[in-house]
Automatic annotation (TrEMBL), chain A:
CDD domains documented for this protein: NirB_Fer2_BFD-like_1, NirB_Fer2_BFD-like_2
Domain annotation FAD/NAD(P)-binding: ranges: 5-283
Key words, A-Z: 2Fe-2S, 4Fe-4S, FAD, Flavoprotein, Heme, Iron, Iron-sulfur, Metal-binding, Nitrate assimilation, Oxidoreductase
Pathway(s) where this gene product acts: Nitrogen metabolism; nitrate reduction (assimilation)
BFD-like [2Fe-2S]-binding domain ranges (all copies): 412-461, 476-525
Family: Belongs to the nitrite and sulfite reductase 4Fe-4S domain family.
Residues that, per the record, bind [4Fe-4S] cluster: C630, C636, C670, C674
Stored Gene3D superfamilies: 3.30.390.30, BFD-like [2Fe-2S]-binding domain, FAD/NAD(P)-binding domain, Sulfite Reductase Hemoprotein, domain 1
Family matches, as Pfam families: Fer2_BFD, NIR_SIR, NIR_SIR_ferr, Pyr_redox_2, Rubredoxin_C
Species in which this protein is naturally found: Jeotgalibacillus proteolyticus
Name recorded for this polypeptide: Nitrite reductase large subunit
GO biological process: nitrate assimilation
Automatic annotation (TrEMBL), chain B:
Alphabetical UniProt keywords: 2Fe-2S, Iron, Iron-sulfur, Metal-binding, Nitrate assimilation, Oxidoreductase
A Pfam family per the record: Rieske
Protein name: Nitrite reductase (NAD(P)H) small subunit
Keyword Iron in annotation: yes
Organism whose genome encodes this protein: Jeotgalibacillus proteolyticus
GO molecular function terms attached to this record: 2 iron, 2 sulfur cluster binding; metal ion binding; monooxygenase activity; nitrite reductase [NAD(P)H] activity; oxidoreductase activity, acting on paired donors, with incorporation or reduction of molecular oxygen
InterPro entries reported in the protein's UniProt record: Rieske-like_NirD (IPR012748), Rieske_2Fe-2S (IPR017941), Rieske_2Fe-2S_sf (IPR036922)
GO terms for biological process, alphabetical: nitrate assimilation
PANTHER family, sorted: 3-PHENYLPROPIONATE_CINNAMIC ACID DIOXYGENASE FERREDOXIN SUBUNIT (PTHR21496:SF23), FERREDOXIN-RELATED (PTHR21496)
NCBIfam families on file: nirD_assim_sml (TIGR02378)
Rieske domain: residues covered: 8-105
């Protein structure tokens, strides 16, 4: 039979899922052509929030890869917009003047963000939050600007605001009503949410009507109707969306608030369907993926000529994707006169639950602080279950496993993708699945908003038992199921002495590990047994192996030590001479108060070091990098302490030490903090009569302000406290966790209490001394070892024709 | 027709460090190879440029038959030259011959 021509307009979540459903029912019957205005394959729009919040990257949110289109014989025209439809001759035309005819046409053009028609809304720096481009625009703005305003205190606005906070911006959220997410939450939950988000650093301007965006060519501020003006460099409008139905309307397809469709998603024009946010079904236009996916399923049946009950509308549920805040709501939220409710309000733990009941049936729910029951409640609402069904099960709910066990197989786990408990259990059993990712791959569960991950994980634990337990600990890498703690225990218990032995004895799945576990094992082994361990060059990343930083063109940079950022004429002269002799293309002052020679050839490295005759600055090491200092008491009119002197002492003491990740320090001699102690792993501030020791700061990818660890009186105490802190970090941190991440994981109070124990403190210092006693300068070590020089720094040159 | 191969001496096997790469320039900057001695003693020779952004593979970390590019950690099979998923691509591989401790690379004649 001749294939039918199926054309999809809109390469987004609803349209592509509908095509997937069609192919599932009939993989041979259609030649599929897809047009999408965006230049990407179908991606998970929902996860844009997580991209903005830095939890994932644009590259990782693709739902259907280019290969998927190819493998399924789908002709995709990315970056191409359909401009008109001729419903009589059944053809469409695109902005690239392509004309294509169809037997069946699906409109899935989604929505367009609604932009408030304020004067000045066309200025640079005003954006919506809808697609990859918007996301990139915000990330870019965050690099050069500080202040952002989000208009709209709904789901989208709050997620955008959290993202902008993570990007280091100050954020005001403007909302016209007096509670946040007022379309989804009741007053109590809305207020709790506000309090929580304020704690996270969001600022709210409620009951405010925006009037004008002010500024020259770029936005500089937002003026409200009450006259107040708030400064800003970026305005994100998240006030709502409108069905994108222009194309349909212009082509004579009947529309209202969306493109009008029946239960089978057929428009009023033959052979033309509409699905997703652009469609209006029984006066409802949906803006969440779960209903859109259900629509796709029903539409596919009709397109493939199968019978079905058709689409019957959906109960909406939402979940806010902001880390640290659990909010869920479904169905009815606002109580009417005859509505009864079951409420639990635990202010202390920050938990709020409200289940609304009409005529004895569950009709709505709001959860704050603990949303585990969300999916279950949604199921009950969908069934219009009697309230007893919820109450009867409450006792069992404390034991999570019982809750899972008692769920019927038909109960929905993943609302977005319509995956039931039965379907997941079957996949786990039939295919021996043990991880959430595998379940996602096989069943689609948790492939969209990810809100059901905890449930899927519970279900795995329940169904797969031990096999799953094994997978839950964070293993070092994919070669093993052992966690860092377990590996360290085994190394100690079995007296393991080199990486390959660890991998063999502990049954690694690959003989020689990978680029993740090898350096980690090399570090753990060396840390546990500093005196005897033989460092493995071949398990080090290139920079640490060669004691220089590789550059993009394969040359290297050389940074000699300059203790405390203090130098002298002799050293500067040596550096200058070396730069001349080896024709160093660039000399740069680093952000770490020292000098960097760039573009050195690998084979020249040993000679450069030998001519410099200075210790290595370890600018490549997972170890102590720099100790920045300020001017200090000897010269500065505010200085209270000899910051340079103390900085040099710290650098001399800890240079060459191996740590889980790099360690940077600084010493300032007054609270003006010119050496930037608040973003250092260890930052010392000298005051009149005492020193403050700050720890866990980070000025890199994830900016983190340091915490005050201790106040001490003498330099000696600074050195000892720093040693205790660093040794505890060395012994307990995961490889590649900076102190910032480690302090967050351990908790500052815990670290303080460990160091407060006199005995432990002395032992930590003792073990630190032991580690320091075997430290060698990387450059000197290489220069003194002929084999090392040959193995690591020599290249071979052979003539082409030799036999 | 059979391709003519040019046999080029590149190293003495005992002089090659185990599980580390070495850069070999053949001719006047025409060809740059990375030569590896694996832990099982086998020799692998591949072109010294990563298909991603030209990282020097000789400085990569070696694990069994694979080398991890030092620039952005792509994983490359040294026997068939294939880049491992999720990344895609391949590097040229070269056959070798070992005679009396001497390693020769077989290069296509041109
Ligand atoms: C040379 C220098 C830039 C400069 O010219 O100023 C530099 C250069 C590099 N930095 Fe940096 N960082 C330099 C100061 C910084 C600073 C500022 C500071 O230390 O005061 C920071 C932020 C502060 C911090 O670390 O908390 C910084 C945060 C990073 C990060 C992100 C670390 C993080 O925890 O997020 C990386 C990536 C990493 O280490 O994994 C990085 C990695 C790198 C590497 C080594 C990238 C690499 O792996 O190849 C760069 C080598 C470039 C090259 O071609 O040689 N560099 N880097 C600075 C050397 C200071 C020194 O004297 O040793
Ligand atoms: C930041 C963010 C967070 C979200 N979070 C959630 C959430 O947690 N849970 C949830 O359920 N939903 C969430 N949503 C909503 C969800 O993403 C949408 O409901 C869903 O993407 C709609 O799918 P769609 O296919 O109808 O539209 P879209 O995904 O927008 O796809 C429509 C596509 O059609 C293209 N197009 C339009 N006109 C044409 C034309 N004439 N020719 C060619 N192509 C055209 C568009 O460029 C677009 O790519 C979120 C949305 C955003 C923006
Ligand atoms: S910020 Fe650091 S890592 Fe990034 S390009 Fe500059 S030197 Fe390289
Ligand atoms: S250059 Fe090899 S991974 Fe990027």
């Amino acid at each position: 039979m001749k294939k039918q021509k199926l054309v999809l307009i809109g390469n987004g979540m609803a349209g592509v899922r509908a095509v997937e459903e069609v192919l599932k029912l009939d993989s041979e019957g259609f030649d599929v052509t897809v047009f999408g205005s965006e230049p990407y394959p179908n991606y998970n729009r929902i996860q844009l929030s997580k991209v903005l919040q830095g939890d994932t990257e644009i590259a990782d949110i693709t739902l259907n890869t280019w290969e998927w289109y190819e493998e399924n014989g789908i002709l995709l025209y990315p970056g191409e917009t359909v401009t008109s439809i001729d419903t009589v001759n059944q053809t469409i035309v695109t902005d690239k003047e392509r004309q294509v005819s169809y037997d069946k046409l699906i409109l899935a053009t989604g929505s367009v963000p609604f932009m408030l028609p304020l004067p000045g809304a066309d200025k640079e720096g005003v954006t919506a939050f809808r697609n990859i481009e918007d996301c990139e625009r915000m990330i870019e703005a965050s690099l050069s600007y500080k202040k952002a305003i989000v208009i709209g205190g709904g789901l989208l606005g709050l997620e955008a605001a959290r993202g902008l906070l993570n990007l280091g911006m100050e954020v005001d959220v403007v909302h016209n009503s007096n509670t946040l997410m007022d379309r989804q939450l009741d007053n109590t939950a809305g207020k709790m949410l506000q309090k929580e988000l304020e704690k996270q650093g969001m600022n709210f301007l409620l009951e405010k009507q925006s009037a004008e965006i002010v500024g020259e060519s770029r936005v500089e501020g937002l003026r409200f109707e009450d006259g107040e003006v708030v400064k800003t460099d970026l305005v994100v409008m998240a006030v709502g969306i409108r069905s994108n139905m222009k194309l349909a309307e212009e082509s004579g397809i009947p529309v209202n608030r969306g493109i009008l469709v029946n239960d089978h998603l057929e428009t009023e024009v033959p052979n033309v369907f509409a699905v997703g946010e652009c469609a209006e079904h029984k006066e409802m236009v949906y803006g969440l993926v779960a209903p859109l996916y259900q629509q796709g399923k029903e539409m596919a049946k009709r397109i493939c000529g199968e019978t079905g009950n058709g689409y019957q509308g959906s109960v909406l549920s939402t979940q806010l994707k902001v880390s640290g805040v659990d909010v869920f709501s479904a169905g009815q939220i606002i109580e009417e006169e005859e509505t009864k409710s079951v409420t639990l309000f635990d202010d202390w733990r920050g938990v709020y639950k409200k289940v609304l009941v009409n005529d004895g049936k569950i009709t709505g729910a709001v959860l704050f602080g603990d949303t585990k029951e969300g999916t279950r409640l949604l199921n009950l609402i969908n069934k219009r279950a009697p309230i007893e069904e919820y109450m009867d099960n409450k006792g069992a709910e404390e034991a999570g496993a019982d809750l899972i066990a008692s769920m019927p197989d038909t109960e929905m786990i993943c609302g977005c993708n319509g995956v039931t408990k039965g379907a997941i259990v079957e996949a786990i059993n039939a295919q021996g699945l043990t991880t959430v990712d595998q379940v996602k791959g096989c069943t689609n569960a948790s492939r969209s908003c990810g809100g059901c991950k905890p449930l899927v994980s519970d279900l795995l634990a329940h169904t797969a038992g031990d096999a799953f337990e094994q997978n839950q600990k964070e293993s070092i890498c994919a070669c093993t199921s052992y966690s860092k703690e377990e590996v360290m225990e085994e190394i100690k218990a079995k007296g393991l002495t080199y990486t390959k032995e660890v991998m063999n004895v502990l049954g690694w799945s690959s003989d020689e590990g990978c680029s993740k576990c090898r350096p980690a094992l090399n570090y753990y082994l060396g840390m546990l047994n500093p005196a005897e361990y033989h460092d493995e060059k071949e398990s080090r990343y290139v920079n640490e192996r060669l004691h220089a930083n590789i550059q993009k063109n394969g040359t290297y940079s050389v940074v000699p030590r300059m203790y405390g950022g203090v130098t002298n004429a002799d050293d500067l002269r040596k550096i200058a001479d070396v730069a001349d002799k080896y024709k160093v293309p660039l000399i740069k002052v680093t952000g770490g108060q020292r000098i960097d020679l760039f573009g050195v050839k690998k084979e020249d490295l040993p000679n450069v070091w030998s001519d410099l005759d200075m210790p290595s600055g370890s600018a490549y090491a997972k170890g102590l990098r720099t100790v920045k200092t300020c001017v200090g008491a000897d010269y500065c009119r505010f200085g209270t302490k000899d910051s340079m002197g103390l900085g040099i002492k710290l650098e001399k003491k800890f240079e060459g030490l191996n740590t889980p990740h790099k360690v940077k320090m600084s010493v300032s001699a007054c609270p003006r903090n010119c050496a930037e102690g608040s973003i250092k792993d260890v930052g010392i501030t000298g005051l009149d009569g005492e020193f403050e020791i700050y720890v866990g700061g980070n000025g890199g990818t994830h900016l983190r302000k340091a915490n005050l660890l201790a106040k001490v009186k003498t330099e000696e105490e600074v050195l000892e406290t720093t040693a205790g802190f660093l040794q505890y970090y060395r012994e307990t941190a995961d490889y590649l966790d900076r102190t910032s991440a480690w302090v967050e994981k351990m908790g500052l109070d815990h670290i303080k209490s460990v160091l407060a124990n006199k005995k432990t403190f002395i032992e930590l210092n003792h073990r630190m001394d032991e580690a320091l006693s075997v430290v060698q300068d990387g450059w000197k070590q290489a220069l003194e070892d002929k084999t090392l020089l040959r193995d690591l720094y020599q290249n071979l040159k052979v003539p082409a024709g030799s036999n | 027709m059979e391709k003519m191969l040019n046999k080029v001496f590149v190293a003495t096997i005992t002089e090659l460090p185990e599980n580390l790469g070495r850069t070999v320039y053949v001719g006047e900057g025409k060809l740059e190879l990375a030569i590896f001695k694996l832990s099982n003693g086998k020799i692998r020779v591949i072109e010294n440029r990563c298909p991603h952004k030209g990282g020097v593979l000789a400085e990569g970390m070696v694990s069994g038959e694979h080398v991890f590019c030092p620039m952005h950690d792509w994983k490359i099979n040294m026997s068939d030259g294939n880049v491992q998923a999720p990344d895609i691509g391949c590097v040229k591989t070269f056959q070798t011959e070992v005679q009396n401790n001497q390693v020769y690379v077989l290069l296509p004649e041109n």
